[in-house]
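BUG: 3D viewer hangs when loading the predicted structure for this chain

Environment: internal workstation, default settings.
Expected: structure renders.
Actual: progress bar stalls at 90%.

Input used:
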Amino acid sequence: MTQGQGSTVDGVLRRSARRTPARVAVRYGERRWTYQELDDAVSRAAAVLLGQGLGRGDRVGTYGHNSDAYLIAFLACARAGLVHVPVNQNLTGDDLAYIVGQSGSSLVLADPDLTGWLPDGVPALPLRDADGSLLARLADAPPYDGPEPRTEDLVQLLYTSGTTALPKGAMMTHRALVHEYLSAIAALDLSAGDRPAHALPLYHSAQMHVFLLPYLAVGATNIILDGPDGDTLLDLVEAGDVDSLFAPPTVWIGLSNRPDFATRDLGGLRKAYYGASIMPVPVLERLRERLPQLALFNCFGQSEIGPLATVLAPEEHKGRLDSCGRTVLFVEARVVGEDGADVPDGTPGEIVYRSPQLCEGYWDKPEETEAAFRDGWFHSGDLAVRDGDGYYTIVDRVKDVINSGGVLVASRQVEDALYTHEAVAEAAVIGLPDERWIEAVTAVVVPRGEIDEAGLIAHVKEQLPAFKAPKRVLFVDALPRNASGKILKRELRERFGSAS
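Structure tokens produced before the viewer hung:
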């Protein structure tokens, strides 16, 4: 293999394999991979992929569930100089065709149960659990011995979650992701002695790039799970196999609502990470009361920055439960007004970034790229407040702020008030068209007890000014969200907007 600078995504694994070759790197089901075995599998998988007629820079879609094969496929693309395109395994139809087509994927690696959903004519290779799959071919493949990728090469098209518009492919380089891994290690206290479980989808940037790859960089033993099943997670904690867990607020809400959450022996859980969407303060207080020994980290960011931008460390939570913390090692941020100038501390504005972690722009979307990258800064679309000590609080997505009668209302503040009611399991607040109010503050609630609209509105008015209280409350069985746990408010507005 032609040697390069080594600041590449696959180089992260290679260095750990040379440092601790016999340590177990990954557990998935009954399979175990030492660091040396995993590195060898990645080299052989890289050769398999290039044997499909692919060339450097070609895009390779990966449409599969969590598995060791999924991780090997990503690292093999990185080593072979290919561009990995993670595809949400829940997508079908036009949504799936859009990602595959817009990325120009030359090949899709797919789990056998998903292959039938692929658009006609798309070349596919089974990822695992089938004759001729990528995993099955490793034993007969020679190790890859070609040139290393360059640090400035693209390694992934990381599609945004599409909560407000069609997904865009953030063009991530090796250089950007390696910087992000260093930021994650430093800010999140990741170490080789941790025992992390990875339960969220690996196609999503948070689980893959904030936790799994940084943990491989430091040499930890990683358990990959099919999904965030509560019984499995709590069993692993009780057995001493897991002491570190990342999950979005929706998963932590589900765990804390379980009847056995108060009785299970969870003292072995040392580190808890939350992010991907805003954690309601009442839920955070519930977790802290139940597990006072737990080190809680709030992780915030977005796909375009790799995705980690800020972290609120455990010792910083007191008095700042609604804050997302301060910027990580390689990120610089400002809060600006509509004119692009800094606003005073304590004043809401859009948070903007510059960083070596940032993407190079959006794949084949020059207009969107130009709109997002202005004056040397990336405009995030998040409304934030910065205090004098450098801590940021996310008020809302700019597109989710509600204009009610000419007054702007942050949906998060109303959601926090709703979560203090014992009969509210989940809540999302949106603005719906209204002749009088322009947008009516509307609460969409998943109940877990006896509750009615009037009582819930009155409850919010006890905590907030009346103009911020919901004008309507809609009760549903579940809130729509993507696999990373983000509530899809765009779908709620589409669903209920026509009936308003």
